Amino acid sequence: MVQQLRFHKASYGGFYLAPPKAGSVGDVDLDDHVAAVFAEHVRKYPPALVELPDITAGTPDPGKDPKRRPVPLLFTDDLGRPIHGQRWSDLWQIWRRAAGWPDEGTFHSLRHYFATRLITSGADHTDVQNALRHSSLRITLETYVHWWPKKDRRRNIISSALRDASTKRQRSPKTQDSR
After folding, report:
1. Is residue 1 scored above 70 in pLDDT?
2. How far apart are alpha carbons 146 and 14 in whole angstroms?
3. Whole-number Cα distances in Å, 177 to 94, 158, 165, 166, 174
4. Long-range pairs for 117-121 at CB < 8 Å and ≥24 separation?
5. 136: Cβ–Cβ under 8 A, 6 or more apart, which residues?
6. Beta-carbon-side half-sphere exposure of residue 7 (alpha carbons within 13 Å)
7. For residue range 3-22, what is the model confidence (pLDDT) as tens digits?
């Protein structure tokens, strides 16, 4: 079953499991180094079982409590509880400083960093959309279009073609008219 951890102060006592936002489901492609670091983290800090309300299959009937089930969470606080948004912000400040990164930015900034690294490394528009789980390509382009290289601008298409034709003409041997 696919779900995401959500938090809403008034709903289900805070943390609960629900279907992913906008149906954004997919695999995360990790290179060998990242997978090894992640595996080491899981070895050192095994998942903590936390009992949570689960509305993945749908919201319960009015007046009924949702089903609860134990869920293994990789990232919890010191007491083995899910980490609340404010706590993530506090931890992010600690981690950012330990890494020597600037004080600007939030934990969400890592998402933008990931996207811009994909783009500047040559990733296709739809690859970035899929990696970020955007529901449409329009969202991706509206957010990141300024990061894609400008080499394919319309104004360069004709000049590039003319330069290519000129270069070919200069390289080819001239032939005499044999009339």
Report:
1. no
2. 38
3. 78, 30, 21, 21, 10
4. 119/144, 119/147, 119/148, 120/147
5. 129
6. 9
7. 888 888 888 888 999 888 76
